[in-house]
Specification:
single chain; four-stranded mixed beta sheet
Length: 137
Amino acid sequence: MKSLLSIVLVVATAFALSACSNYSKRNYTEVPLSDGEEIVPFNEFCYFETEPQGAAFKIVKKKTVVAGNVYGSPDALLPKLEEKVKTQGGNSIANFNASQRFGFWPWRAIRPIVSGDAIQIMNAHGKSCAELGGHTR
């Protein structure tokens, strides 16, 4: 009986801790290039809360950056996130989330975290970041 109770407690704790994450997986419908359409480099680094509207894009990889220090603004992590995305071949972030997360250990009480899915916008059809539904920092 004690082992069953301990298993239930472990599962409940794991479920509760997973609910504290700031990343939620999103299912995207990648928009491929049309026939005869060429890849046009997108020069702005753009942050989207969902996904770009009206642009061909592909998903590169999920990215997360966590600060090593306690407290602080998540905005300080954006250059590091941008660098990670660009090294993977992306030029924007979809499903972007910036927040401060509570850690388990006392010395990690509150720490900033930014996350999202690295994407590559292949052709924006001459639209700016704002016209695609995103924002720059």
